[in-house]
Amino acid sequence: WIMHNWKDEECVKILKNCKEAITNQGRVIIIDMIMENKKEEDELTETQFFFDMQMMMLFGGKERNEKEWANLIFSAGFTDYKIITNTPGILSIIEIYP
């Protein structure tokens, strides 16, 4: 649960370093929040927005939706990703491939 502390540019740098450190058969596992794109006012959505505001105020970072995650992943030179868990809750697992 590291990437949400960083701005997009820094996340791309972190991911590029990870890509350099793994083999072509390797993968990088990200455990972080995936923001929902819905406008419903349930407790989960409120919690996600609360974390998003905290990251912006404290670190200049943010919580990201799937499209924003994909942009970071592909900008860092990775070719594919898979969301292993994106169930209601705070954290999801994203597996990314070189």
Could you give the distance between the termini? 21 Å
Radius of gyration: 13 Å
List the secondary-structure elements in sequence, H or E: HEEHEHEE
**Structure classification:** alpha+beta
* Main β-sheet, spatial strand arrangement: 1-5-4
Q: Give the name of the CATH superfamily.
A: Vaccinia Virus protein VP39
Task: Report the sheet-strand fraction.
Answer: 15-25%
Q: What fold name stands as the CATH topology?
A: Rossmann fold
Number of helices: 3
| Proportion of residues in helical segments | 40-55%
Classified by CATH, the class is Alpha Beta
Q: Which stretches are low in confidence, meaning pLDDT under 50 for 5 or more residues running?
A: none
Q: How many strands, what sense, and barrel or not for the largest sheet?
A: 3 strands, antiparallel
Q: What sort of overall outline do the alpha carbons produce when their principal axes are compared?
A: globular
Task: Please identify, by name, the CATH architecture.
Answer: 3-Layer(aba) Sandwich
| Global mean pLDDT | 82
